[in-house]
Amino acid sequence: MRKTSTALLAVSITTLGAMAHAENASQAFVPTTLSTTHAQDGAKGFIEDQHLTGSTRNFYARERSTRADLFSYQKDGQKVPTNRRDTWTQGTLLNYTSGFTEGTVGIGTEVAVYNEVALEAGHARIAGGGNRTLTDSNGDAVDQWSKMGLGNIKARISNSTLTAGRQSMNTPVIAYIGNRALPSSFNGFSLLSEEFNNLSFQAGSFDRVSPRTEQSMTRFRSEYASSTATADRLSMAGVDYKPSKALTTSFYASDLEDFWKQYYVGITHDVGDTSIVGLTTGFNYYKTKDSGQSKLGAIDNDTFSLSFTATHLAHSLTFAYQEVAGNEYFDYAHETNGIFLANSLLSDFNGPNEKSFQIGYVLNMAAYGVPGLKFNVYEARGWGIDGTHYAGTAYDVKKMDGEKHQEYGIGTSYTLQNGPLKDTSVRATYTTHRASENQVDGSLNELRLVTTIPFNIL
Predict the structure, then answer these.
(1) Which stretch of DSSP H or E encloses residue 315?
(2) Which of 155, 290, 301, 316 has the smallest number of Cβ neighbours within 10 A?
(3) CATH number, domain at 145?
(4) CA distances from 350 to 10, 56, 305, 324, 338 (A)
(5) What is the sign, positive or negative, of the torsion defined by CA atoms of 339, 344, 349, 355?
(6) Residues 6 or more apart from 314 whose CB is under 8 A from it?
């Protein structure tokens, strides 16, 4: 999280808790073989298999900084600091997905239109909007705006699909962010190949990102660098391999042109029976090294997280440790969620040389006869943040000497299980973050209320 933009709220805790509720998985080795079924063989036709779906999301957030004024707005041409920012928007997306034409090569398309309405438009209350409320050059909220969120053409052979155009991606090195009223998306080419039973391959190259709260496409830039440098392209490739039902591995590499090359290894393992005790172990590792013109200067960063989630019936308890080895932030591309680390919460806990530890608890009320209702609570602490040895200029970290911070969160969510509003979800979270003087995220409290209603038209 930056001072001007917060990140995910307890997503890692909720995800790990859900993973740990899986049935007892087999540890037996699964040999890699060619798939015996081919998706393109089941193509029903471009029109015959078309779908028109959508969703609408009401997003409310109330932020209050407790020590310094973290936000600001313009008044009479002057910048006015403030300790508060309110966001209230309604985002609606309408998604058309065609079927694939029949034959050896199937052709299909996907088009999505995004619309957002500002329900809170007070000039001082939205405090410049940040990445939450779209504003004009005067800092006033844009009452209502729309854009094409997705627009692509797909070609499929067997179990492999090539996509060209504006699309959504979800990998450890480039992933859409869905934590606002509308998600981000990317413009370029991608290939997904699933020709084997337990091994898949992804690759892609993208030249623009469509931000969550902007109408235009923009070049890629860093999430944490103070530099305004931009990158013309982000390219990636990776494999996901599942050697057993209990073990999942991922290996990815990416190149953010003239910024850095980044490599990722992820491992998730399940063991035990959740009716007694089940254990999910998660390991994530990133290696980041400057490349090309090195527009952000020298980067040499190793970051990892290790988490353990123990589950007994409705109860999940998570312990997660994360460490950054490098004199700059662990960084990723702005408007992507390319940070698959256990302690990426309201804060990313990714400062130079930072160590962090998290304890989280999830209660799934399905075991008590209320399916769809969950509660979670967590605490995370980061310490040892030290940027005094950083020799470059792209990251504002040189004043960080022994910085620390802590974060507490509590949340609940409910998903309707049936009826005309089936799959509608309501989520409420309250987070408190406290930081030492030079830790980037500052001290603030945030309340979020998010309601998402999906719908089917065709």
Answers:
(1) strand 315-325
(2) 155
(3) 2.40.160.10
(4) 15, 32, 11, 6, 13
(5) negative
(6) 363, 364, 365, 366, 367, 368
Of the candidates 8, 10, 6, which has an alpha carbon nearest to the alpha carbon of residue 374? Answer: 10
Model confidence over 301-332: pLDDT tens digits? 999 999 999 999 999 999 999 999 999 999 99
DSSP string, 24-84: ----S-----B-SS-GGGG---TTTT-EEEEEEEEEEEEEEESSS--EEEEETTEEEEESE
Question: In whole angstroms, what is the distance from residue 447 CA to residue 440 CA?
Answer: 20
* Number of domains present in the structure of the chain: 1
Vertex 186 angle, CA 181 and 191, to 5°: 130
Q: Which two tokens stand for residue 239?
A: 């494999």
Range of 77's domain?
11-456
pTM above threshold 0.90: yes
Cα–chain center distance at 394? 24
Please state, in angstroms and rounded to a whole number, the distance separating the CA atoms of residues 313 and 20: 10
In a domain, 6, yes or no: no
Buried b / exposed e along 77-102 (16+ C-beta atoms within 10 A): eeebebbebbbbbbbbbbbbbbbbbb
Task: Provide the token pair at 400.
Answer: 């960080």
Closest CA to 94 of 182, 178, 213, 187: 182
Token representation of residue 301: 């960063």
Number of residues that make up the chain: 458
Would residue 347 count as lying in a domain? yes
* pLDDT number for residue 240: 98
Biggest CA pair distance of the chain? 69
Spatial contact of 245 and 213, defined as CB atoms under 8 Å apart: no
Structural domain contains residue 193: yes
Residues (pLDDT < 50) of the chain are 3-22
d(CA 174, CA 234): 8
CA angle, 178 then 186 then 60, to 5°: 25
Contact 449, 428 (CB under 8 A): yes
CA 424 → CA 9, 171, 187, distances in Å? 19, 26, 29
